[in-house]
């Protein structure tokens, strides 16, 4: 397997050491003072590409710090690893795989040879099948077993086989087919599926069983329930072929489950689950918005790939976002990162980015097996910014630790929503300003004087009414929320994650950390059914299993 050129650990890199010194020197500096001292700051600290404008002037960095961050990317080998990824090298070394989600959005007709195989040709062939199938369902050519049109599509999948298409379907609802409803089922507790099935007509429902491995317990459990439900109504196995399709890399398991492999859409082991929404995993979205618009999503992502591949680091959106993120996590000691979209359509974006970022870079060991020696993936969290403002933004403004924020706004909006859109936008910009600028004691005191408060009350309240400010944020403005720009936005975050992984030296494309819990769940499940005493666990776990055995009833 191709080994990366050995390089010192991240923290030994000269740029890292210089950044450490920079950070100490800048400890007392306030972003507001940087703005006051440098009228060109905002003008310099923005960049745009693919319909996305990024203002990063409200970060706790000055020009020398930024220069060192770019140097860090160079010393860490970002350009070389980027070339290796785009070239189809097996950069997912722990699994011996290439990493080619970028090939999923390459234009038909281009080529990318991996092990003698043109992967773009393979991708285009599946894309064509997705096109034909989604068009047939949307236009009524594909019908249920009793000849009626499909009205409801249920995607059964979890993690990467759920979050991407679900997030995108929510974001692009304005482009949705009017008579096709999309549903997403992931939770194994059965509640969501049970509630949903009660509202569906089996004759007009299509299930997509989406699982890269087709071994995922949650997905197969839900798929089996759906299968029984359908058979219970349709009465014949033949109905399965009209109501179940699969998206997977595992043909044998799909066949074993009882789905005709003619109704299976494949993808490849070089597509990570959390990077797979561009593959046939995006089938629910293709059904919702149509194949042409799905192509636009791919084109937007491809445009961002080209930008990431070709733009100099200093103008490269993913590189800039990645380096600022590293600065915040490792030098400003910010353990989390808030994603705050100010557009209801993006309400599942934080959940999507949680998997993308934390399953990728939530590692403490480098690709070469050595300890990382610095902090990696921050906790990604959030929901729509406006709701967050009335829930947890208090902590952002006055809590003890900085929470860097990505504010995400959309410029274009429907004319009839103009008044509301203005309010949402004003709030977003104001929050970023308030976090950065804060409110100094003199300002707070003057306000209270003006409001007629007695001096004694002012003195008592003053510490509570002061905002330190100096809290970093990025603001991303999308020209509009359409398939193309959404594709670019998601690709932007994918590449940001990649760059961070390279700098930290971890492999962003494996996820061994999810295995132990899965193994133990299998053992616990067996022990829950045992009538005899169990002692293979610690006392706490044993007691919990015991309590379940005594207390759980149907
Ligand atoms: O358990 C984590 C994980 O393997 C994710 O990486 C993946 O996206 C998810 O489970 C679902 O996996 P699959 O698509 O194979 O069902």
Description:
It is a single chain. This protein is an alpha/beta fold and 554 residues long. It has 23 helices and 13 strands. The chain has helices spanning 14-25, 31-37, 41-44, 63-76, 78-86, 119-139, 163-171, 191-197, 217-234, 240-243, 251-257, 283-289, 291-310, 317-331, 349-361, 385-389, 393-398, 418-437, 441-450, 455-465, 483-504, 515-529, 539-551, and strands at 46-49, 52-55, 113-114, 117-118, 152-156, 181-185, 205-210, 244-248, 264-266, 336-341, 379-381, 405-410, 473-478. A 6-stranded mixed sheet has the order 1-2-13-12-10-11, with helices on both faces. Strands 6-5-7-8-9 form a 5-stranded parallel sheet, with helices on both faces. A two-stranded antiparallel sheet has the order 3-4. Strand 10, helix 15 and strand 11 (379-381) form a beta-alpha-beta unit. Helix 15 packs parallel to helix 21. The longest helix has 22 residues, at 483-504. It binds 6-O-phosphono-beta-D-fructofuranose (F6P). Residues 158-161, 211-213, 216, 219, 273-274, 359, 511, 514 line the site of 6-O-phosphono-beta-D-fructofuranose (F6P).
């Amino acid at each position: 397997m191709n080994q990366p050129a050995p390089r010192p650990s991240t923290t030994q890199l000269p740029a890292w050491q210089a950044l450490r010194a920079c950070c100490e020197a800048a400890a007392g500096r306030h972003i507001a003072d940087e703005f006051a001292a440098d009228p060109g700051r905002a003008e310099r600290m923005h960049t745009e590409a693919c319909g996305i404008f990024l203002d990063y002037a409200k970060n706790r960095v000055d020009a020398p710090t930024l220069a060192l961050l770019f140097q860090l990317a160079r010393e860490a080998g970002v350009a070389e690893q980027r070339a290796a990824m785009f070239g189809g090298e097996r950069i997912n070394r722990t699994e011996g795989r290439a990493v080619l989600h970028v090939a999923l959005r390459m234009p038909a007709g281009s080529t990318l040879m991996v092990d003698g195989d043109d992967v773009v040709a393979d991708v285009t062939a599946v894309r064509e099948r997705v096109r034909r199938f989604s068009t047939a369902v949307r236009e009524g050519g594909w019908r249920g077993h009793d000849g009626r049109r499909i009205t409801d599509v249920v995607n059964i999948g979890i993690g990467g086989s759920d979050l991407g298409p679900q997030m995108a379907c929510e974001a692009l609802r304005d482009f949705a087919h009017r008579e096709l409803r999309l549903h997403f089922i992931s939770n194994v507790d059965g509640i969501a599926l049970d509630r949903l099935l009660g509202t569906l007509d089996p004759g007009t429902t299509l299930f997509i069983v989406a699982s890269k491995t087709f071994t995922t317990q949650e997905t197969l459990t839900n798929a089996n329930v759906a299968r029984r439900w359908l058979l219970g109504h349709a009465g014949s196995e033949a109905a399965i072929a009209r109501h179940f399709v699969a998206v997977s890399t595992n043909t044998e398991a799909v066949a074993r489950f009882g789905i005709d492999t003619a109704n299976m859409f494949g993808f490849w082991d070089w597509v990570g689950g959390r990077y797979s929404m561009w593959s046939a995993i995006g089938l629910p979205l293709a059904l919702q918005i149509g194949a042409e618009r799905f192509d636009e999503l791919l084109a937007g992502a491809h445009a961002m790939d080209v930008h990431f591949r070709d733009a100099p680091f200093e103008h490269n959106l993913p590189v800039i976002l990645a380096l600022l993120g590293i600065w915040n996590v490792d030098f400003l000691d910010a353990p989390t990162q808030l994603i705050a979209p100010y557009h209801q359509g993006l309400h599942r974006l934080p959940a999507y980015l949680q998997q993308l970022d934390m399953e990728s870079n939530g590692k403490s060991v480098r690709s070469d097996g050595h300890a990382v020696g610095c902090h990696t993936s921050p906790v990604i969290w959030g929901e729509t910014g406006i709701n967050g403002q009335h829930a947890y933004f208090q902590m952002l403004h006055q809590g003890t630790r900085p929470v860097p924020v990505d504010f995400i706004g959309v410029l274009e909006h429907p004319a009839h929503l103009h008044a509301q859109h203005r309010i949402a936008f004003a709030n977003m910009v104001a929050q970023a300003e308030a976090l950065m600028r804060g409110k100094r004691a003199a300002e707070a005191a003057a306000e209270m004087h003006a409001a007629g408060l007695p001096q004694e009350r002012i003195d008592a309240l003053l510490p509570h009414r002061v905002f330190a400010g100096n809290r970093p944020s990025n603001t991303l403005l999308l020209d509009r929320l359409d398939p193309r720009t959404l594709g670019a936005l998601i690709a932007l975050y994918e590449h940001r994650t990649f760059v961070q992984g390279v700098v930290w030296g971890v492999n962003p494309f494996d996820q061994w950390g999810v295995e132990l819990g899965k193994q133990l769940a299998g053992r616990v499940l067996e022990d829950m059914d045992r009538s005899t005493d169990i002692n293979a666990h610690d006392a706490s776990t044993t007691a919990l299993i015991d309590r379940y055995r005594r207390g759980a009833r149907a």
